[in-house]
Amino acid sequence: MNGKNLYTEGLRRVLHRAGFDLVRTLGEGHLLKQAARVMEDRHVGVVLDVGANTGQWARAIRALGYHGRIVSYEPLSDAFRALEVAARGDDLWTVVNVALGEEPGETVIHVADNSQSSSILEMLPAHREADPRSGYIRDQPVRVTTLDAAVLEACAGLEPVFVKIDAQGYEDRILNGADTTLKSVVGMQIELSLVALYEGEPLIEEMIASVRSLGFVPTSLEPNFRSKDTGRLLQVDGLFVRD
């Protein structure tokens, strides 16, 4: 998620202060509720939250009734500290300070002013124009591992698996490092771009075809990021289930 759901996040905070939980007001067709239903119907044993930021998505699926194991991966040091706080007291929620990719090693992540737009890839002008707060402000060296290696270390044997990937254009590289894990995956939520926002990222058509080739079918698409000036839809969240 980028700094694209600012209205929703702002509304969520206002309602929370007033004693309401926005998650409870989501319609049955909302992608988050559909994802939670997949977790229930497919008897998911572990959810892999890739690109967790401060734990917003994991908290949402908890609120929607998922009570199983969650493993959240977040490379940004500042976001990870907030993620640790969010997971505190939840014995079934593990957090790991690492980036995921195609192969293990080290790299540099570009840290965005709004945190959520941070990426290993270079940001393109279309993104900065759509959200001026998304520009990069510094770089941070990070350790990289593959999803296969991360699962082997943290949650081997917990099946079936649901994977959420929010990696700012790096989703395809993460899937390339998940050959073994994908055999146990029954559902995925992936961020998809309609317009190139990061250098070298695959667009929605290519990603859907790629995920289909892995044995999954798209069941829901939900608007995620629009240009603040034009309202043009730039990114969606996609829900995929094992065919």
Characteristics:
243 residues; 9 helices; globular; Rossmann fold; alpha/beta; 7-stranded mixed β-sheet
Distance between the termini: 26 Å
* Average of the residue pLDDT scores: 90
For the record, what is the CATH homologous superfamily label? Vaccinia Virus protein VP39
User: Strand order within the widest sheet?
Assistant: 3-2-1-7-8-10-9
Largest sheet: 7 strands, mixed
Give the C-alpha Rg. 17 Å
Structural class assignment: alpha/beta
**Beta-strand percentage range:** 25-35%
The number of domains: 1
Helix fraction, binned, reads 25-40%
Q: What's the number of extended β-strand segments?
A: 10
Query: Would you identify the regions where 5 or more consecutive residues have pLDDT less than 50?
Result: 3-7, 9-23
CATH topology: Rossmann fold
**What gross morphology would you assign?**
globular
